[in-house]
Design the sequence.
């Protein structure tokens, strides 16, 4: 068993699920205008997307439950209309923790089918013997899709696109076709090493393929909202893609040369990407993820 992977998983799920133990009183919600009617909100957890207009408000992800009132206050600065649709990019608690609160307010929750499956059932985290209880029913998506769907809202054609086994098994892009804005959820950590949740169906190859899909969807004018990090452009996404491919190649080559995981972690494989370990996933931990993904049968 790779103990560093256990640590990453424990750290991630401690921060996303055991949110009631954290102090959110000092968290501020920062709003960035992406277009004249699409916004990105940052607080604690995954980046939120907001589409405003006369039809109502469409929201992408909702961070942690204790932040819901702050998020509602920030949205009230943009529009008087309540949230009509709430789209989840995947199931993790820093993106769905507010589902119950917004669902009780009347928001219709939409997500890929695997998100409802994971939110509505107990999940066993085998790596460190932790169980995640099912979320309350008010937090479950009411509308699900398998591969893709469209919502026509506020003059936008909003496309939801399932990308397979990337960050998790239920990831979805949200693409505002008319405005050329793409929300990628946690398939994109801008300028930092990603967390790839192997225990929830994620994979390194799937993460790479997801970014390839996003690169095909986007052009130089596309504005991209990452799951974590600053608002991005295609050039930022291309740098992220190059990092993923290079880091995978380096780890695989070192492994093929007979090096142990401990040797690989100290071999300086993050050369050129030293600053990418500034998030909660260090270079060593990301190397662990890559190695563990391709050595699952040996754990």
Sequence:
């Amino acid at each position: 068993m790779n103990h560093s992977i256990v640590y990453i998983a424990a750290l991630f799920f401690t921060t996303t699920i055991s949110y009631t133990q954290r102090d959110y009183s000092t968290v501020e919600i920062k709003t960035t205008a992406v277009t004249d009617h699409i916004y990105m909100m940052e607080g604690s957890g995954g980046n939120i997307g907001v589409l405003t207009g006369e039809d109502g408000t469409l929201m992408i992800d909702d961070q942690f439950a204790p932040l819901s009132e702050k998020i509602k206050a920030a949205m009230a600065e943009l529009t008087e209309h309540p949230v009509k649709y709430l789209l989840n990019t995947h199931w993790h608690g820093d993106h769905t923790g507010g589902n119950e609160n917004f669902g009780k307010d009347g928001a219709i929750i939409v997500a890929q089918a695997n998100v409802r499956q994971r939110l509505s059932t107990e999940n066993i985290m085998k790596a460190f013997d932790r169980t995640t209880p099912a979320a309350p029913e008010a937090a479950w998506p009411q509308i699900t899709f398998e591969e893709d769907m469209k919502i026509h809202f506020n003059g936008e054609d909003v496309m939801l696109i399932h990308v397979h086994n990337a960050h998790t098994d239920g990831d979805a892009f949200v693409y505002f076709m008319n405005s050329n804005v793409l929300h990628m959820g946690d398939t994109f950590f801008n300028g930092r090493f990603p967390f790839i949740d192997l225990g929830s169906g994620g994979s390194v190859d799937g993460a790479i393929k997801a970014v390839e899909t996003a690169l095909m969807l986007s052009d130089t004018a596309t504005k991209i909202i990452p799951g974590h990090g600053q608002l991005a452009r295609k050039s930022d996404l291309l740098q992220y893609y190059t990092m993923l491919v290079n880091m995978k190649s380096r780890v695989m080559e070192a492994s093929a040369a007979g090096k142990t995981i401990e040797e690989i972690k100290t071999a300086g494989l993050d050369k050129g990407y030293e600053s990418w370990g500034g998030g909660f996933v260090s270079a060593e931990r990301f190397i662990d993820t890559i190695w563990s993904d391709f050595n699952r049968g040996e754990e």
Observations:
- The domain at 3-234 is CATH 3.60.15.10 (Metallo-beta-lactamase; Chain A).
- The CA atoms of residues 119 and 135 lie 5 Å apart.
- The chain has nine helices and 14 strands.
